[in-house]
């Protein structure tokens, strides 16, 4: 198994710490000298870049958040003059307003390097034909994967998202071997391919690079089985870089973090206290090499856990588990905390359920109610309402035991819920206020 940057991906212990500390110093000096909004926060805490003498001192630094980007929209978070910025991207803005980020030429080089690392880790090589079915635009997915895969030397097909027939025409005509998209879109293509008579098993498709939204192991299994590929996960966010922060190797045992470019911490989202490896909490990232928009202790809102156990692939960096969900996606239903990912996991344990669902939250009087709309497979769907009711009750009983809260289930015909070429919308919140 090839490692893209053997030296940097196998750094550990004091060597890694020395590099991180030196680069952290540069990040702090950059935000300080550029007088970004973070400088004021450091001053309020009585800190200067000189206050951080060891990596442990990082814990004394204040957090930054997505709201900092919103309040300083569009360019207030930048640490370089606009003439050094050669590109901008923005977060997809599914929750709240858009956040804008900039890249220097150096940032774009780093970005391509980090995408090349995880693509290589997933098994992508020069002779691969990689179809990028992420939307190209302000979203970081399209351009991010594009340049990283070019760097690997793969033949990149900038298909962009949507237009299902074009996706299959390109796969067929060009012999696509690597599919790049959200897991939701991959599922959609798996279904559509079946309907169009596309034979995945005899196609050259062999690797999926999927990311940008949470997806359970159940969804991974379905994609792998229906497409006959290995489906890998990769993670990132616009405020920190875009894709490339972490990604799985072929062993699929957590996403390898580019620790020479980011410091990752996991905190208790309620208290802000740092948690030990193995404990689940909110991921906090500090950039070490970002020039245009360095961020310090950025609260990602994503729930995960870290491990530093060495991986069988030979990389020695820390790995993060699949993202469980976002802190702001947690639903509190009659006092019980429920994450969409738990609902997804429980649903997929039921034979005959398709991985297309929507969680509908409503309020009746004082009480919150949870309803789950979910598609069933062709084999299960029936016009007989008694049969369907019986099946729905089985799913409800399973959800109750998995979530500890009652959810009513509304079964939907195959292919009836909206499909998205990008990130799936999983929650419809009808509670007012
Ligand atoms: O989604 C960057 C990206 C593009 C990552 C392509 C991977 C592949 P944003 O639009 O700013 O950037 O959204 C970032 O998406 O905070 C997570 O909540 C979620 N997210 C990204 N990757 C994953 C993943 C891109 N692999 C937000 N698993 C993040 C779960 C993910 N959630």
SSE inventory with pairings:
Elements: H1 6-9, H2 13-33, H3 37-44, H4 66-71, E1 87-90, E2 100-103, H5 105-121, E3 129-132, H6 140-152, E4 155-157, H7 164-174, E5 178-181, H8 183-196, E6 207-211, H9 217-227, E7 230-237, E8 242-248, E9 255-257, E10 262-267, E11 281-287, E12 298-304, E13 306-307, E14 319-320, E15 325-326, E16 331-333, E17 336-338, H10 340-348, E18 353-364, E19 367-376, H11 385-403, E20 408-412, E21 427-429
Parallel strand pairs: 3-4, 3-5, 5-6, 6-7, 18-21, 19-20
Antiparallel strand pairs: 1-2, 7-8, 8-9, 9-14, 10-11, 11-12, 12-15, 13-14, 16-17, 18-19
Residues 91-92, 134, 139-141, 144, 211-214, 233-238, 242-243, 300-302, 323, 326 line the site of 5'-O-[hydroxy(phenylacetyl)phosphoryl]adenosine.
Summarize the structure.
The protein is an alpha/beta fold. It has helices spanning 6-9, 13-33, 37-44, 66-71, 105-121, 140-152, 164-174, 183-196, 217-227, 340-348, 385-403, and strands spanning 87-90, 100-103, 129-132, 155-157, 178-181, 207-211, 230-237, 242-248, 255-257, 262-267, 281-287, 298-304, 306-307, 319-320, 325-326, 331-333, 336-338, 353-364, 367-376, 408-412, 427-429.
Description:
The chain is 31% helix and 24% strand. It has 433 residues and is an alpha/beta fold. It folds into two domains: 1-326, Rossmann fold, CATH 3.40.50; 330-429, 2-Layer Sandwich (GMP Synthetase, Chain A, domain 3), CATH 3.30.300. The chain has a nine-stranded mixed beta sheet, sandwiched between helices. A four-stranded antiparallel beta sheet has the order 10-11-12-15. Strands 20-19-18-21 form a four-stranded mixed beta sheet. Helix 10 packs across helix 11 (385-403). The longest helix is centred in the first third of the chain and has 21 residues, at 13-33. 43% of the residues are buried. The mean pLDDT is 96. 5'-O-[hydroxy(phenylacetyl)phosphoryl]adenosine is lined by residues 91-92, 134, 139-141, 144, 211-214, 233-238, 242-243, 300-302, 323, 326. 5'-O-[hydroxy(phenylacetyl)phosphoryl]adenosine binds at residues 91-92, 134, 139-141, 144, 211-214, 233-238, 242-243, 300-302, 323, 326.
């Amino acid at each position: 198994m090839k490692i893209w940057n053997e030296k940097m991906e196998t750094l550990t212990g004091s060597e890694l710490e020395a590099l991180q500390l030196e680069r952290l110093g540069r990040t702090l000096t950059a935000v300080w000298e550029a007088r970004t909004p973070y400088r004021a926060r450091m001053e309020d805490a009585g800190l200067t870049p000189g206050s951080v003498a060891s990596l442990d001192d990082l814990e004394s630094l204040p957090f930054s958040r997505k709201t900092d980007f919103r309040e300083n929209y569009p360019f207030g978070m930048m640490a370089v003059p606009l003439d050094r910025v050669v590109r901008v991207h923005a977060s997809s803005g599914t929750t709240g307003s858009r956040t804008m980020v900039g890249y220097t030429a150096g940032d774009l080089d780093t970005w391509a390097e980090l995408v090349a690392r995880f693509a290589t880790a997933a098994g992508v090589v020069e002779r691969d034909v990689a179809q990028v079915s992420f939307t190209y635009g302000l979203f970081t997915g399209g351009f991010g994967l594009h340049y990283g895969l070019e760097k690997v030397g793969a033949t990149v097909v900038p298909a962009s998202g949507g237009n299902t027939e074009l996706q299959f025409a390109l796969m067929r005509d060009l012999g696509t071997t690597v599919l790049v998209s959200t897991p939701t879109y991959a599922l959609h293509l798996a279904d559509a391919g079946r309907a169009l008579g596309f034979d995945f098993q005899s196609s050259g498709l062999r690797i999926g690079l999927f990311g940008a939204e949470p997806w359970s192991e159940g969804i991974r299994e379905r994609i792998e089985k229906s497409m006959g590929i290995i489906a890998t996960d990769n993670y990132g966010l616009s405020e920190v870089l875009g894709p490339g922060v972490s990604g799985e190797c072929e062993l699929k045992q957590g996403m390898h973090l580019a620790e020479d470019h980011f410091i990752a911490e996991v905190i208790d989202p309620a208290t802000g206290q740092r948690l030990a490896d193995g404990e689940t909490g909110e991921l906090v990232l500090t950039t070490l090499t970002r020039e245009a928009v360095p961020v310090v202790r950025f609260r990602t809102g994503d729930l995960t856990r870290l491990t530093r156990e060495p991986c069988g692939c030979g990389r020695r960096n820390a790995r993060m588990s699949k993202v469980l969900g976002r802190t702001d996606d947690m639903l509190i239903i009659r006092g019980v905390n429920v994450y969409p990912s738990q609902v997804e996991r429980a649903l997929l344990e039921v034979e005959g359920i398709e991985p297309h669902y929507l969680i509908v939250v409503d309020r009746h009087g004082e009480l919150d109610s949870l309803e789950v709309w979910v598609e069933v497979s062709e084999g299960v769907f029936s016009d007989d309402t008694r049969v369907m009711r019986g099946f729905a009750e089985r799913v409800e009983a399973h959800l109750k035991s998995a979530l500890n809260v009652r959810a009513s289930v509304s079964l939907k015909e195959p292919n009836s819920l909206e499909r998205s070429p990008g990130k799936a919308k999983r929650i419809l919140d009808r509670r007012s206020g």
